Amino acid sequence: MSATEYVQIKDIKAGMRNINAVFIVLEVGQPILTKQGHEIRILRVADPTAMINFSVWDEAGALLQPGDIVRLTRGYAALWRCSLTLYTGKYGDIQKVDEFCMVFNEELNMSEPQPALAAMSQGQQHSHAASLSLMPNAASDQVNNSKQDPFDSQQKHKSYM
């Protein structure tokens, strides 16, 4: 049995699959309800190399708190609203492994909106549009189309070093 290889956040690209990573939760966004009654939260997470948005569905999103250190296995990355976002995936798993003990980088934001990148990937994703609509975490057509910011602007920013 081989050892698990972990990906650094700075190396994550749209379309990657089977991502294993360890990161700290910096912020937990407000819940967004889907038409089917699922709750989605966008978490801002980071490791020593960069930070990224992480979409978590239902109970897992409600349980994670800022400062939790999380291990993601079998995740995937995709663009959502022109921003690189990490997802657990159908067979993915997230586990809380520790708290408050991780050096992280907030300078490099991998989820910074990149409209040019989104336009380039649109052509590639058209051929996969049918399969994306069947994925449980394909939020684009399941999420209520409200333009709310997933992060509460009134939350205090905390440092976990």
Explain this structure to me?
By secondary structure, the chain is α+β, with helices and mostly antiparallel strands. Helix content is 14%, strand content 32%. The chain contains 3 helices and 7 strands. It has helices spanning 58-63, 115-125, 129-134; strands spanning 19-28, 32-33, 39-46, 51-57, 68-80, 83-87, 93-99. It has a 5-stranded mixed β-barrel with strand order 1-3-4-6-5. Strand 5 (68-80) and strand 6 (83-87) form a beta hairpin. The longest helix has 11 residues, at 115-125. 33% of the residues are buried.
Strand order of the largest sheet: 1-3-4-6-5
Helix content: 10-25%
Number of helices: 3
Radius of gyration: 15 Å
User: pLDDT below 50 for ≥5 consecutive residues: which ranges?
Assistant: 126-148, 152-161
C-alpha termini separation? 34 Å
- Based on secondary structure, the structural category is alpha+beta
Gross morphology: globular
The number of strands is 7
Largest sheet: 5 strands, mixed, barrel
Write the element-wise H/E pattern from the N-terminal end onward: EEEEHEEEHH
Average pLDDT confidence is: 76
